[in-house]
């Protein structure tokens, strides 16, 4: 069992970038040893999101048409965005817009649990930073679902836990300069 202070992220992996005109999409894939139903709950329930996600949600993200306020955690200034759930096919696909960026979660049942894929439309200069941040969030999510929560690690807190290294590794993987 590991606690918050002992956490160290593994190497950059499971990520790719797609560019369509001016639109950039970060795609991250993570294999989780948990059922799609359990992962779905962690993606949609505010109490679960509070444990791992880079935002607080004031309501559930599990119903199409629902408007939820998402507040970025760890940002230098408060960033609140009204988010409308565009698609919620439990426990397979969840789509919403967060801060002007489209987010799509795909959950695929596997023999060992769930293949979780995140599609995040993001500005080109934030691609490696986003990959590094989501990498850490996915690790924290996996610990939460395994019953060994280590607490959310986002924003400035992530700097203490290998975010800079991951940012550099993802930038190299994507063939871009490391953003400052």
UniProtKB/TrEMBL annotation:
<dbReference type="InterPro" id="IPR023393">
    <property type="entry name" value="START-like_dom_sf"/>
</dbReference>
<comment type="similarity">
    <text>Belongs to the AHA1 family.</text>
</comment>
<protein>
    <recommendedName>
        <fullName>Activator of Hsp90 ATPase homologue 1/2-like C-terminal domain-containing protein</fullName>
    </recommendedName>
</protein>
<dbReference type="Pfam" id="PF08327">
    <property type="entry name" value="AHSA1"/>
</dbReference>
<dbReference type="InterPro" id="IPR013538">
    <property type="entry name" value="ASHA1/2-like_C"/>
</dbReference>
<feature type="domain" description="Activator of Hsp90 ATPase homologue 1/2-like C-terminal">
    <location>
        <begin position="34"/>
        <end position="145"/>
    </location>
</feature>
């Amino acid at each position: 069992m590991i606690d918050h202070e002992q956490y160290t992220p593994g190497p950059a992996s499971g990520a790719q970038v797609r560019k369509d005109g001016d639109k950039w999409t970060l795609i991250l894939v993570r294999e989780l040893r948990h059922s799609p139903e359990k992962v779905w709950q962690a993606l949609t329930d505010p109490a679960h999101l509070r444990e791992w996600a880079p935002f607080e949600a004031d309501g559930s993200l599990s119903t199409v048409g629902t408007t939820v306020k998402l507040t970025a955690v760890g940002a230098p200034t408060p960033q609140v965005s009204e988010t409308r759930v565009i698609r919620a096919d439990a426990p397979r696909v969840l789509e919403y817009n967060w801060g002007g960026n489209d987010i799509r979660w795909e959950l695929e049942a596997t023999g060992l649990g769930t293949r979780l894929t995140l599609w995040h439309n993001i500005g080109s200069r934030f691609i490696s930073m986003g990959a590094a941040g989501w990498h850490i969030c996915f690790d924290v999510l996996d610990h939460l679902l395994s019953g060994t929560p280590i607490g959310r690690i986002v924003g400035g807190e992530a700097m203490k836990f290998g975010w800079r290294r991951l940012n550099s590794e993802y930038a190299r993987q994507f063939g871009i300069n490391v953003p400052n």
